[in-house]
Design brief:
CATH class of the largest domain: Mainly Beta
Shape: elongated
Structural class: mainly beta
Order of helices and strands: EEHEEEEEEEEEEE
CATH topology of the largest domain: Jelly Rolls
Oligomer: single chain
Largest sheet: 6 strands, antiparallel
Helix content: under 10%
Number of helices: 1
Strand content: 35-45%
Length: 206
């Protein structure tokens, strides 16, 4: 029997141990010691969660969602300002519209003026933790910075005769620290309901 090393395990917490001598009768096996929240108390099974779900339980996951009616040809601007720390925001975003609309996301924008600071909610409603991001809606933008991505949503200029549109950023983006992001949402129809949903967790790499 040939043995191959396919990776390196971090055993700083003493969770791993090996058994067997490599023979056919007693091949090598790896045992993982788990405890606490890693084991279901009812079944004794190992519990594996996604990083996002884990961060909810760690009280570091936040969301912000709402909508606003926007006139034809009118742009609604939002800024997302990240703090100058290594606790980075891992974000996914969803934008939708009742009729035709466009949205663009820029990185490294200049500070805007005015607008209303929005309150992000912690996914764990028992937590008093707050997000380190400052998100402002209705700003008058400065220089836009570098365009990261842009999408066209929906079709038609009359909401009652239009197809709704939706665009999501399913793959998370780790926002750069100490940076201003500018979101531009432009309506292609009168009285067009534009919705936004931001979801993120804040995590410091080990």
């Amino acid at each position: 029997m040939s043995n191959f090393i396919i990776g390196t395990l971090d055993d700083s917490e003493g969770r791993f141990s090996s058994q067997g001598d490599g023979s056919t009768a007693t091949p090598y096996t790896l045992e993982v010691a788990v405890g606490g929240n890693s084991v279901d108390e009812t079944t004794g099974s190992m519990v594996i969660t996604t990083q996002e779900h884990h961060e909810i339980h760690e009280e570091n996951h936040y969301f912000l969602e709402n909508y606003q009616d926007v006139g034809s040809g009118v742009s609604l601007y939002m800024t997302i300002v990240t703090p100058d720390t290594t606790k980075w925001a891992h974000m996914v975003a969803l934008f939708s519209s009742e009729a035709e609309a466009y949205y663009e996301v820029y990185e490294g924008a200049a500070a805007g003026t005015g607008g209303s600071v929005l309150t992000a909610r912690n996914n764990n409603r028992n937590s008093e933790n707050t997000s380190g991001l400052v998100i402002t809606l209705g700003v008058t933008p400065g220089a836009t910075g570098t365009l990261l991505f842009a999408h066209k949503l929906g079709s038609g200029t009359n909401p009652s005769q239009s197809s709704p549109g939706e665009s999501s950023r399913g793959s998370e983006i780790i926002l750069a620290q100490d940076t201003i992001y500018l979101v531009k949402m432009t309506s292609g129809a009168a009285d067009n309901a534009i919705s936004y949903r931001l979801s993120w967790y804040e995590h410091t790499n080990k």
